[in-house]
Design brief:
Helix content is about 5%, strand content about 40%. It is built from seven helices and 85 strands.
């Protein structure tokens, strides 16, 4: 039968889909074929008046290209016999249900027998209830705007239906939107530019023509062809002809390249420690480097990984062993280059050449090609990527070597004395410095280098001759197109989430393309050459914006010329969140741009796992934070035409390096999903074409992985799976001798000889598709265990806090730190600052206990910022047994926790916020019973929580709970409507629970109530995980019931709404504190209360509210306050008959809305015992004299003999003076505290006895 023969021909064509790519678009075919096509145009819904023109056009195409066309609207032809005469069926603007069940079956069998199908336009408006047909057509019609012109982007210029079309094809038609995006299920031939017309709803990724192998046959669809004019348009007729001929099996065409199921991500080596970069050798072996200094090699023949070199590196911040590249002559010379930070000596980076001798890298073969001076005082940005071009020139990417954390996410240009590590003008914009650059040199056989022609500063005039690109921040991954010689790189940008007047634009990451040398603007300009403001870090004053066309570097840290080359704009840029400029760069956590290879298809490559010819000359970019790969199609001028997901969007764990191998597959290093180093899911992996056959997934589980001899391990492959449900076969080699140890799903094996073993499982399906999994077994050595005593996970901190840590290490062979047999100097604590999904390493210290100082936060308003402490210990191993490293990680949370940074939620939505306190977005649309959950939160050291809320709805309450279902809430906050969804108010509640674990915020009113309130963030008050004393900021509060004091404590601010659960009618509460504004100026106070309340400043009443039943509000006139002159604030509240509520707020220069911590410090006799506890008889009097100059005195009442100590803190909570602890007998004492040498200002003397602390203010006047 003719259809069967052509089907066999097409199967042969499919096997040739990896054929060589051509440099120019393929012309549409014009040869004769002799097949027969059925045009079916039945409609049971809307009927297109272009059907007759369509039939005439297809018949004319048949006559001109020697194939027969039969047109019908009679569905009775859809029988096995009726369809047997045809090789292709064309659904021409069909609508509605056009076939009955038997006729549908005939079409299904026709396709299964190798037939072809073509759908034109409204074929997508057909047979909605027939799921098989949905797969055939690819996507069903959803809607369309009016007929208008639009631009079609032709992505596949090799397929016969699109090969002769322009890349950007402007034509008029009715443009369909579809119910779903077919990408990933079909091969997309062309997309629609939704910005080129009005009324589209698909967005930036709008496929309009596609094809695919389907159920044994071939399916081709075009969304064009509504208008009668289409069928006399030459371009559209060529498009239609190519689709018909391909579907008939008469011409070749690849239709699998963008179908996700045709690719697999396979793990090659799961035992990887902090991987950084890789190279694939001509023989297919993979060399990769780890941050700690190891060079490792994966052997594709044995599928084993060995360590081939260990480099002695300085590993701190982002330094270590960070880059590798093979010499173009590697096959004959064995030369490779490492980018690393040598241990000891002056701070520097080395670009060194080593020699691979076939089994190891000879350390004696090192030739230091280039030395790059750096600073190691502060983090960050080391770069590390290297690549050769076709002419043998070596490109080297270096970072700006600058601390970004004190710049608020904007340009780090701190020119103060001693602050060079915070000034990128010393590096990126310093033409005489090698940092913040992409260098271009030519290594020589003798271990030296020359500088090729064409760099930015020829002959070294105006800058270092090695510089090809300057003005970059952290060009972490670079690549060179071997055909054009164009350089590509991803530049990781700063963290400001929003633009700020006086500072500059929001942070952006960039992908750049350099066809010639140039300056790319950092730290003066970013993205499309948007300038930053000059900024004085000493005074906080903003200057004008920098001139991107003529940048000038007048920093005292600049060692090169001041006048710089003009800044070039970025090629592609994107912010946090969605990108409006390049919508193909989709949203995700964080931002970390990486440039992958410009793919080169080689028809003679070994094996069948390489990417197909479709990818030829397409740039692959990837995102470390967002864990995706994108395919950039360039137009004829080399500019981005389309940015599309890699087929199937493979699931990865933060890809940090990606290269194409000689087999055409993509090789990746995945950093892993943890925040620190040494993530257990870090791995070497490969993305390969499966030619339509999916590999099974091999998974190993074990009961133990290390222990003393004899070591019996139970291995299981039960979690292995096959995506197509095929029966799996198992083969185990657990001792590494190459001999199968078992063929069952599970295996128990006893290791009797000490050593490290790589146990491997090979899983295969009946068709020969297979995958491997491995696990490292250490026999004769047990893994150490680390117990972190402090801090606890999820503890709260303030920026700049000092955090104490203490941990215990136990090891079966080494002993324990408690017994003194483990040297605590071998225990390493690494501090990281986290931002969204990534972290930056900061300082590291050794010891089982100690203290680390947290850095200031970085990033933009509302960013997810946190700290991570990573504890690690490597045991000493044994004879022939490697040491084992164990790590523990503690994540600490900032005291202000944005509500949208939850770990789980139900029913919430985010929206942009207008809260003057910032936050970028808030949670809204909250209904009764909605909730959010934060995992791993510790309330230790927290005495109050404040919620930032707004409501134009019914209000409600927030329950703070350790779980959703059981027990009483830890605390409840009442939310009273504020009158507007963006009129924000603080609500503060005391908490006494010190539990650890999940923390739920449950939003409640009455069942069925909707639109309760918005929440922006919560604030945890108290020392939290830090070493600082509790209660040094806020108000002295006293609660009186029936004339008796019931409670005295420090409260962080006055923002309480007790409803009916707090002070009752006649109950009284007072607050007192010393207020000091940061900037002199005019201020207003606002007092809001339910009850009767007064505000007095320095003894004079300023405001009074008398509103016993509802919430009353009053605002003062302008009050002049000086930053150098603190004032005493007194607030008094008498509860009304319907409960109590009170808020004290301020407006003025540099102040937050709610008055409290940061502005106010308490006065009086205070106990910081948990809420509800009455103070004991121990008492501390006021400081005298006050003001003081050299010493102050405090009277103490000591009820029971005990030890008392004191310290002096400034208004920022920093300990500035210690008084040695001393034992005191019961009775009255006077304590003397020296304040000599301290500058003028307000301080607090904190007296401690047992678990209690008392704070007393004192003003020093010099």
């Amino acid at each position: 039968m003719m259809r069967g023969l052509l089907g066999l021909l097409f199967l042969a064509i499919l096997s040739m889909e990896a054929g060589a790519a051509t440099a120019t678009p393929a012309a549409p075919p014009s040869s004769a074929h002799g097949f027969k096509a059925l045009v079916f145009s039945r409609t049971t819904g809307f009927r297109h008046d272009s059907i007759d023109e369509g039939i005439d056009a297809i018949q004319a195409l048949g006559a001109g290209h020697d194939f027969e066309v039969v047109a019908t609207e009679d569905p009775s032809v859809f029988t096995d016999a009726g369809l047997d005469a045809y090789q292709v069926i064309i659904f021409l603007n069909t609508t509605g249900d056009v076939l009955n069940v038997d006729q549908q079956g005939a079409l299904e069998r026709f396709m299964a027998d190798g037939g072809g199908w073509v759908g034109i336009h409204a074929a997508a408006d057909t047979e909605y209830a027939w799921s098989w047909y949905g797969g055939l057509v690819g996507a069903w019609f959803a809607s369309h705007p009016n007929i208008q012109s639009a631009t079609v982007r032709v992505l596949d210029r090799d397929h016969p239906s699109t090969g002769g079309l322009p890349q950007e094809w402007l034509r008029t038609d009715e443009w369909y939107d579809y119910q779903s995006n077919p990408r990933g299920q079909v091969h997309v031939l062309a997309t629609l530019d939704d910005d080129s017309y009005s009324g589209g709803t698909m967005g930036f990724d709008h496929p309009i023509a596609w094809c695919r192998p389907y159920q044994g046959g071939r399916s081709w669809y075009t969304g064009m062809g509504h208008t009668a004019e289409s069928y006399s348009e030459p371009g559209f007729l060529d498009h239609l002809l190519g689709g018909i001929e391909w579907a008939a099996g008469a011409v070749e065409g690849a239709c699998s390249a963008t179908i996700g199921s045709n690719y697999d991500l396979e793990v090659l080596e799961p035992d990887v420690e902090s991987p950084m970069d890789l190279e694939v050798a001509p023989d297919g072996s993979v060399f990769f480097v780890e941050l700690g200094g190891l060079v490792r090699r994966y052997d594709p023949q044995t599928r084993f990984t060995t360590t081939v070199a260990e480099i002695d590196v300085f590993q701190n911040f982002e330094d270590g062993l960070i880059g590798i590249v093979l010499d173009p002559s590697f096959e004959t010379t064995g030369w490779l280059y490492l980018f690393y930070s040598p241990a000891g000596g002056a701070p520097r980076q080395h670009i060194s050449r080593f020699t691979w001798d076939g089994s190891v890298i000879d350390p004696a073969s090192e030739s230091v090609i280039l030395e790059i001076p750096t600073q190691r005082q502060e983090c960050c940005h080391s770069g590390g990527s290297m690549v050769f071009d076709a002419a043998g020139n070596l490109y080297i990417a270096t970072g700006d070597n600058t601390n970004p954390f004190a710049s608020d996410g904007y340009a780090p240009i701190d020119e103060q004395s001693g602050r060079a590590p915070w000034d990128a003008q010393k590096s990126s914009s310093n033409a005489a410095d090698l940092r913040g650059k992409i260098l271009r040199i030519t290594p020589q056989p003798d271990g030296t280098y020359t500088v090729p022609e064409g760099n930015l500063f020829p002959g070294g005039v105006g800058g270092s001759p090695e510089v090809y690109v300057m003005g970059v921040r952290n060009p972490f991954r670079i690549s060179v197109d071997p055909g054009t010689g164009w350089l590509y790189w991803g530049d990781v940008g700063p963290d400001a989430r929003n633009a700020t007047a006086g500072r500059g634009p929001a942070g952006l990451d960039e992908w750049n393309q350099a066809r010639e040398p140039g300056n790319y603007g950092w730290p003066y300009c970013i993205g499309p050459n948007t300038p930053y403001n000059d900024f004085n870090f000493a005074s906080g004053a903003s200057g004008g914006v920098f001139d991107c066309a003529s940048p000038v570097n007048d920093s005292p840290n600049n060692t090169g010329p001041q006048s710089l080359p003009p800044a070039k704009p970025a090629w592609i840029w994107y912010p946090y969140g969605p990108s409006s400029d390049f919508p193909g760069i989709t949203d995700g956590p964080g931002r970390t741009a990486m440039a992958g290879p410009v793919y080169q298809y080689v028809a003679s490559r070994p094996g069948d796992i390489g990417l197909p010819a479709y990818f030829q000359d397409r740039l692959l970019i990837y995102e470390w934070s967002r864990s995706w790969i994108r395919v950039v199609t360039l137009d004829d001028d080399g500019n981005p035409l389309s940015i599309d997901p890699f087929p199937g969007d493979p699931e990865m764990n933060q890809p940090i390096a990606m290269k194409a191998g000689p087999d055409g597959a993509l090789y990746l290093l995945e950093w892993g999903s943890g925040f620190g180093t040494g993530n257990p899911d870090a791995q070497l992996s490969r993305i390969a074409s499966t030619q339509g056959g999916k590999r099974p997934e091999a998974v190993i589980t074990t009961d133990v992985v290390a222990g003393p001899l004899p070591l019996t391990v139970t291995f299981s492959g039960a979690d292995s799976s096959d995506p197509e449900g095929d029966l799996l076969s198992f083969s185990w080699d657990v001792n590494g001798d190459g001999v199968e140890d078992g063929a069952a799903e599970s295996l128990a094996y006893t290791f009797t000889e000490a050593g490290g073993y790589t146990a491997r499982l090979r899983v295969s399906d009946p068709f020969g598709n297979e995958s491997l999994a491995s696990v490292t077994i250490t026999a004769g050595n047990s893994a150490p265990t680390l117990v972190v005593n402090t801090p606890v996970p999820g503890g709260f901190f303030d920026w700049g806090d000092r955090i104490s840590f203490d941990l215990t290490v136990n090891d079966a062979e080494d002993g324990s730190t408690g017994a003194g047999t483990i040297d605590c100097s071998r225990v390493v604590t690494q501090l990281f600052i986290g931002h969204d999904a990534h972290t930056h390493p900061l300082t590291s210290v050794t010891g089982c206990s100690g203290e680390v100082e947290l850095t200031d936060g970085h990033g933009g308003d509302g960013d997810r910022i946190f700290h991570v402490l990573e504890f690690s210990y490597t045991d000493q191993g044994a004879d022939g047994v490697p040491g084992i490293t164990s790590t523990e990680e503690v994540v600490l949370l900032p005291s202000r926790l944005e509500a949208e940074h939850y770990d789980a939620e139900q029913g919430t939505q985010t929206e942009n916020t207008a809260d003057p306190s910032g936050g970028n977005v808030n949670l809204g649309f909250l209904d009764h019973g909605d909730w959010i959950r934060f995992d791993n939160v510790s309330l230790r050291g927290v005495h109050h929580l404040t919620f930032r809320v707004a409501s134009a709805g019914s209000g409600g309450r927030i329950e703070v709970r350790p779980d959703l279902q059981t027990g009483d809430p830890l605390a409840t906050a009442i939310v009273t409507p504020t009158g507007d969804w963006q009129r924000w108010r603080d609500v503060t509640i005391p908490v006494s629970d010190e539990g650890d674990g999940p923390l739920f915020l449950v939003f409640l009113n009455e069942p069925g109530n909707t639109g309760l309130f918005n929440i922006n963030y919560l604030v945890a008050h108290g020392p939290g995980a830090s070493d600082g004393p509790a209660g040094l900021e806020g108000f002295s509060a006293s609660y009186v019931n029936g004339g008796n004091t019931q409670l005295t404590r420090i409260e962080p601010q006055i923002s309480f709404d007790w409803g009916a659960s707090g002070p009752e009618g006649g109950d009284r509460a007072t607050w007192q504190g010393v207020l000091q504004v940061p900037t002199s100026g005019n201020f207003t106070y606002t007092l809001r209360a339910r009850g009767t309340a007064t505000l007095s400043v320095d003894g004079a009443e300023v405001l009074r509210v008398d509103s016993p039943s509802g919430i009353g509000e009053v605002t003062s006139g302008l009050q002049r306050l000086r930053s150098s002159l603190p004032v005493l604030v007194d607030v008094d509240l008498t509860a009304g008959p319907r409960g109590a509520a009170i808020w004290l707020e301020m407006e003025g220069p540099g102040v937050s809305e709610t008055v409290g911590e940061g502005l106010v410090t308490p006065t009086g006799t205070i106990s910081t015992e948990s809420p509800g506890d009455l103070p004991e008889a121990f008492a501390v009097g006021a400081t005298f004299p006050n003001p003081a100059q050299t010493s102050v005195f405090l009277d103490l009442e000591v009820p029971v003999a005990g030890e008392v100590q004191a310290a002096v803190f400034d208004l920022l909570g920093r300990r500035v003076r210690d008084v040695p602890a001393r034992p005191l007998a019961a009775g009255r004492h006077t304590l003397t505290v020296s304040v000599d040498g301290l500058s003028s200002g307000v301080y607090y003397v904190v007296v401690s006895t047992g678990s209690r602390q008392f704070a007393r203010p004192v003003v020093l006047a010099r």
